[in-house]
Amino acid sequence: MTQRTIEFFWDAASPYTYLAATQIEALAQRCGCSLQWRPFVLGKAFEATGNRAPAQIPAKGKYLFKDLRLWAKHYGVPLFFPRVFPVNSLTAGRIGCALPPEQVGRWAQAVMTAYWTRDADISQAEVLKGVADAAGFDGAALLAAAQEQPAKDLLRANTEEAVERGVFGAPTFFVGEQMFWGNDRLVLLEDYLNGKLAA
Ligand SMILES: N[C@@H](CCC(=O)N[C@@H](CS)C(=O)NCC(=O)O)C(=O)O
Questions:
Q1: Residue ranges of the DSBA-like thioredoxin domain (predicted)?
Q2: Domains in the chain, please, with CATH?
Q3: Which of 9, 14, 115 is the pocket-test mutation for ligand 1 (most atoms within 8 Å of CB)?
């Protein structure tokens, strides 16, 4: 039987994506799936679908802070709400697009951990360079590659593909054409992969 793949559309600016990123590797391993980390631009998906960030709705925004803290406690992972929020995560995404597929997850984890636990302003090139260097990449080379057309084109293509497939928010996962939106849907994703949701 061919191994199934979880496609993980991520944008480092999304706190629920950070939470999901702390869990997804273990989930994929438990289910015997491969994992494909696919950077995309959440803001563009919002624009394309007429959706908007939940924090823009005051009551939802207030609840969201509490919800995120509860999830972090539930998972036993750190979460620090960054001073710069929302943040421009375009270069972080382009770096993800400049890397070979098998290294994208390491970058995604590094950049989200820096932003969501250490208050690193990931809109800044020198901050990204430091995060990349600390994660064992060549930060200067990655920043240069992120400015090249192939990385820009891939991020745009990923975003367009995501929107075409129905993505309106983050984190979003696909197993084939089956889509799951939200960190809180990881349980459904796992049940689905374990064949528990068959009609
Ligand atoms: N309940 C979801 C919330 C996820 C969420 O609010 N994600 C934001 C980005 S951080 C989003 O895509 N919002 C779109 C929406 O609320 O429609 C979860 O647990 O992950």
A1: 5-193
A2: 5-193 (3.40.30.10)
A3: 14
